[in-house]
Structures are given as C-alpha cells and as structure tokens.
Amino acid sequence: MRHVDASSIVHAWDTYPVAQIPRLWEWLQRKITEPDLHMSRVAFGEVQHVSPDCATWLAAAGIALLDITDDVTGEALRLKRALGIEGENYHPRGVDENDLIIVATARIWTAPLLSEEALQPTLPPQRARYKIPAVCGAQGIRCSRFIDFMKESREVF
C-alpha cells in the first residue's frame, strides 16, 4: 500500500490528462480499489482546494481517506520536535503542519509516500527547512515521485 501526497496526485492530474491517457487513470482506479493507494484526509483537503476536479475523480474512484488518529498526531508532534520546530514557527522553506501529518500518516501505516516536493540533495543545516522527502529519508520512510510509481508498475499505458 502507498500513501499519496496532494502534490503527487495533482501533478499526475495536471501532467497526464484523463481524456488523453485514460488507461493510466483506469490503472490508478484499480490501485485505489485494490487498495494499493490511499491518502490522508489532510492531503485530500489540499487536493479539493487546488484541484476540485481531481478531488471529485478521487472520491468517485473510492480513495481510502485516513483520519488523523491519536497515533498520527503523536507521530506528527514527534517529527516536529525532531525538526526543531517550536510552536507555530514553521520555516517557509520547510514542511508545514499538514506535511507533518501526511508524513506521520505514512509512518503509522508503514506505507511508502508519493510526493512531488523538491528533493534536497544537500540537506540544509536547519532541520526545520527539510521538505517532505528529506523528512521521510531521516525517518526511514521511502518517498518517491509519481513517475517512479508508474515505472515500478511496469504497466504500459
């Protein structure tokens, strides 16, 4: 099972239009139905905000939406402390509260995360400036991009 971030599914929606690449979206629907793909309610809310049509498609496909449980909240707080973020002082170039909940959900569900957030080959000295892939890497969570998910499937669209 994989956990998908809003950035990844919106990237797919914008890059691979359903009308032009319907077999890709049929495959994604199968992945959702199996279920091999799920998303946190926080990430789904972000999708609704930036791409309502994509959110409508996800809902119709039956994407499993994972709630913010006590375990997820506790893990998000642990991540926040590990990054040295105090209170609401998130660094503008790092993760925010939603990102921490998304990463925490992936960790609690022991699921790899799909995210299009920028890779940071050289990690910034301030951990508060880490983006999702760096936070995942520091926590032993596999993080990859949508294109990697497609390639690993070996499907032909």
**What count of domains describes the coordinates?**
1
Q: In one word, what is the shape?
A: globular
The CATH class? Alpha Beta
Q: Find the CATH superfamily.
A: 5'-nuclease
Q: How many angstroms separate the termini?
A: 21 Å
Question: What's the CATH topology name?
Answer: Rossmann fold
SSE sequence, one letter per element: EHHEHHEHHEHEH
Structural class: alpha/beta
Strand content: 5-15%
Quaternary structure type: single chain
Unreliable parts: none
Helix run count: 8
Going across the major beta sheet, what is the strand order? 3-2-1-4-5
Q: Sheet with the most strands?
A: 5 strands, parallel
Total number of strands: 5
Radius of gyration, in Å, reads: 15 Å
Question: Which architecture per CATH?
Answer: 3-Layer(aba) Sandwich
Overview of this structure, please?
By secondary structure, this protein is α/β, with parallel strands linked by helices. The chain has one domain: Rossmann fold. It is 53% helix and 9% strand. It contains eight helices and five strands, in the order E-H-H-E-H-H-E-H-H-E-H-E-H. The longest helix has 13 residues, at 70-82. It is globular and about 45 Å long. The model has no long low-confidence stretch (mean pLDDT 96).
